[in-house]
Specification:
Layout (H helix, E strand, L loop, with lengths): L6 H17 L93 E12 L20 E12 L4 E14 L5 E15 L4 E15 L8 E15 L4 E12 L8 E15 L6 H7 L93 H4 L3 E2 L17 H13 L5 E6 L6 H21 L7 E7 L10 H7 L1 E6 L2
Parallel strand pairs: 10-11
Antiparallel strand pairs: 1-2, 1-8, 2-3, 3-4, 4-5, 5-6, 6-7, 7-8, 9-12, 10-12
Length: 502
Amino acid sequence: MPRLRNPVFESACAVVLLAGLWVTPRSARAEPEDELVLDDEDEDDPLADDEDDPLADDEDDPLADGSGASGSASVSLGGGAKAEGKGKRGKKAKRTKKPREKCTATFFECYKPTNHMINAGIYFGGFWRADNHGLFDRSIAQQPTTNRSAFDLGFRLEYMPIPYVGVGFETGGMPTRSNSEDNARAGFYTVRGHVIGSLPYRLTPTLAVGAGLLGLRSRNSAILNGGENAFHWGPGAKFFVNDWVAVRIDGRHIITGSSTDGERSHHGELLVGAEVTIRLTRWVGEKWRAQRTDSDNDTITDFYDKCPDEYGEDEDGCPLNRDRDKDGIPDRRDACPDEWGDGADGCPVPDTDGDGIFDINDSCEDEPENFNGIEDDDGCPDEMPDEVKKFEGVIRGILFDTGKSTIRSKSKPVLAKVVELLQKYPQLRVEISGHTDSRGKHDDNVALSLERANSVKQYLVDEGIDEARITTRGAGPDEPIADNKKKKGRAKNRRIEFKVIN
């Protein structure tokens, strides 16, 4: 008699493969020269009686004309307008897939079971039949011999509505042979369902209790066919490798009622398997999921939790002292929690014209202050007075000892007017620059010009002017305003200039 193929075993394998393909998610498939000759000062100011001097002015006011010198008026105080602009509209950005966030919880908290999970996979292991089993056709003859143990291969499908309890289905085949039936091929098989209990941890113990059918089937021998209702239970353990894959080990104690000796038959299985985990909460509505999920375990579900990723003690689910915008005002009292604010309510004090002066103190909310040292605190643009405009440029009448930075006493009337003007406009800041002619070594002339500028600064400071309002610069011979080859030209080049600065 020719040996026939084992239909039970082959059918079970086919079911496993087809089911596995059906439940596997799509994602699973698939950068000097000359000797030094310092500039000499004449006994009297050489510019004073020079009728052709373009810097000449009235005798009574040495500050009246600074037209012959170059200078510019500018703002001196802090604050300023903010520059804003709109960029060109770019092309619409391509939508990119959001990368999956890595789990930041503890090892055993990561990938733990969630509500509404479907687990599908295969298992293999060993099956041990009972000696007194009645899984054969008793109408033909006495119990035939079969292998005491067999390889076990099957498919399982489970649904876990909550992490603690679910239901499952298993079917499998265990090929064997019968020596008493001319080594005929046969196969034990099982189809069963059960209730599953587990704990919500990444490594979770399980317990299955259920019932089904255990049988033996063969096309080679008529006696090797039979089946009985069976009760089964068994402990196990499951480990979630990630959100999609889990591995597990299970034991099954199978009990059938009919046997050759009138007692119950006790069979056993030890199974090792892998399965794909489909978390349905990823596909249900966001609101539905948020109402049932508490990501930070603070007893406030994500739907009502204003800080779903931060454990919170407040009634809104946020930490009591949370301050998102870092403005020193806790979010629970901050009217603008996502915007840094210097107002009492946590919101920024408005500055409509962007000049750095808040509207509450700005007399011209829609016109920015021009910060020219004239009433710069009122927030309104001001025009520089003529007396300040005349202040800039060459200041005639400031004289020094020859080759030194010592200020002559003749200079005091001129400097007194400078002090008076700086006291009248306390917000003005000035730069004092010293200049020489080209005779002598360049570096020595630069040093001398800076020393003379510093001497003028020190005089003004001694008269009560704030040192922070004055800067100095030594230009030496580098910025002439006349011909250094002529005596009158060299006299004009030896000078002190003032400039209003920002």
